[in-house]
Amino acid sequence: MRFLVTGAAGFIGSHVAEAYRQAGHQVVGLDNLSTGKRENLPPDVPLWETDLTDESQLERLFHEFRPEIISHHAAQVNVRVSWERPLEDARSNVLGALALFRQAARWKVQRTIYSSSGGAIYGEPEQLPVTEDHPVRPLSNYGVSKYAVELYLQAFRLHSNLPYLIFRYPNVYGPRQDPAGEAGVVAIFATQFLRGEQPRIFGDGTKTRDYVYISDIVDANLRALDCKRCGAFNLGWGKEITDREVFEVVREAVGIAVEPIFDQKRPGEIDRICLETTRVREALAWQPRVAFREGVGRVVQDWRQRLVAPPPGSAWAGQKGER
Questions:
Q1: What percent of the chain has pLDDT over 90?
Q2: Contacts from 129-133 at CB under 8 Å and sequence distance 24+?
Q3: Measured in whole angstroms, how far is the alpha carbon of residue 118 from the centre of its chain?
Q4: Half-sphere exposure of 81 (CA within 13 A, CB side)
Q5: CA 279, CA 2: separation in Å to the nearest integer?
Q6: Residue 142 designated active-site
C-alpha cells in the first residue's frame, strides 16, 4: 500500500514511517523541517519538504503519489508557543489538517490515522485513569487545536465518507526525541545529565504523566491498518509517573549523583493524567510492553552514542558537550 506520513522527519513520525517501510509498503514523508530532522528518515523514504498549508504542493504530492493511507503527525506541539503565538498554532495544527483532509477526501484515501493528545485535550481529569468518554476541557490553545482536528475528522467522515482512526497519545519517549522541545522530558533529563548539567523540574515534582515507549506507539500504528472502526483510542499504561520519579530513573540510568533545580510551574499544564486503554486493547489487541525503566535505559544509551559520535550531517554533529 501507499502511505503518506506527515511530520515524517519528527520523533514519532519518523519511527512510524520507518516501520511502514519495513513492513513492505511504499512510503513518502512530508515535513517542513521546522523541528524535524531529515536524518531521522531512512534513505528509502523520500521526503517532500513543504508545509501542509501550501495547497499547490500538497495537491501535486497527492496527484503524483496517490496515497491510500495517511498517518498525520505534523503539528506544532509546544504548549508555550500555543499561548504566545496562537495564530501560528492554529495555522499549523488546524488549517494544515484541513488542507490535508480536503485532499484525502478528493483522492478517496482509504483511511486517515491522526495523532491527537491524550494529555492536552482532557484538561484536569475528574477521575483516573481517563477514558475516551471523559469531558474534553483543554487548558491550552494546543489542546484546543488538537481536539478541533478530531471534530473536523468526524465532519469529513459524515460529509465526505473519509474513514479515520484517532490515537490520543500519552507522553511518548524514545530515541530521536528532541531534547530542545518542552515535551520530551526523558530526553531532556538524559542529555542534561550526560552533559554534566543540572536538570530543571517545573513545579514541585508531583506532576504526573503516562509514559509509553516509542516502539509500543509504532505497534499501535501498525495494528491500526487492520482495524475498520472509526473513532478515538487512548494509548497508555494507565499508570501515573511523577516528574520526580522520571528524574530519579534517568539519574539512575546515567549513574550520576545530582539533585534537580525546581522552577515555577508552566501555564497551561495539567497536574495529573494517565489514560485508560480498554477500548484499544479490545479493538486492536494492543498493549504496551516496554517498561519505563527499560525504555529509559535505551534512551540513555542512545544519547551516550549520539553525544560521543553524532551521525554525519546530524544537527548534533559538532555539539559534543555543548548545549
A1: 89
A2: 129/210, 129/236, 129/238, 129/274, 129/275, 129/276, 129/277, 130/234, 130/273, 130/274, 130/275, 130/276, 131/234, 131/276, 131/278, 131/279, 132/168, 132/231, 132/232, 132/233, 132/234, 132/276, 132/279
A3: 10
A4: 15
A5: 28
A6: yes
- Among the listed residues 142, 164, 169, 213, the single catalytic one is 142
Kindly state whether residue 228 falls inside one of the protein's structural domains: yes
Domain assignment present for residue 31? The answer is: yes
pLDDT at position 318: 38
Reported as a single tens digit per residue, the pLDDT across 80-121 is 899 899 999 999 999 999 999 999 999 999 999 999 999 899
Q: How far apart are CA 62 and CA 106, in angstroms?
A: 10
Altogether, the residues listed in the chain come to a count of 323
Using CA atoms in the order 91, 92, 97, 100, what is the torsion angle rounded to 10 degrees? 100
Buried b (16+ CB within 10 A) or exposed e, 137-166: ebbbbbbbbbbbbbebbbebbeeeebbbbb
**Three-class HEC string of 231-254:** EEEECCCCCCEEHHHHHHHHHHHH
- pLDDT band of residue 309 (cuts 50, 70, 90) is low
**31-73: per-residue pLDDT in tens?**
999 999 999 999 999 999 999 999 999 999 999 999 999 999 9
- Asked whether residue 297 is domain-assigned, the answer is no
Q: What is the mean pLDDT of the chain?
A: 94
Overall number of domains in the chain: 1
Res 321 pLDDT > 70: no
The CATH number of whichever domain residue 124 belongs to comes to 3.40.50.720
Q: Whole domain around residue 95: which residue ranges?
A: 2-172+211-234
Residue with cell 540513555: 300
Give the three cell numbers for residue 63. Answer: 496527484
Would you say residue 219 lies in a domain? yes
Query: What pLDDT is attached to residue 228?
Result: 86
